[in-house]
Design goal:
The chain has no helices and 4 strands. It has 68 residues and is mainly β. A hairpin with a 2-residue loop joins strand 3 and strand 4.
Length: 68
């Protein structure tokens, strides 16, 4: 059960180049982020990315890193 005192945000990535394991399901990936503080989502250009290291999770075409 997720903590009741967290803030939850849904991020929807909708792009014709994104796919999941079953491309028939569409080109949309939904991610829910839970955090004890409010999350600010900001776009980052490729050249402005911080060092990412190894991905924390890879599933289909979605790759996730946790920055510390």
């Amino acid at each position: 059960m997720p903590p009741k005192n967290n803030f939850y945000n849904e991020v929807i990535l909708n792009d014709p180049t994104l796919t999941v394991d079953n491309p028939v399901a569409g080109h949309e990936i939904q991610v829910v982020v839970g955090s004890p503080s409010k999350v600010t989502v900001e776009p980052i250009e490729l050249q402005d990315l911080p060092p990412l290291g190894e991905p924390r999770h890879i599933e289909g075409d979605l790759t996730a890193w946790i920055l510390e």
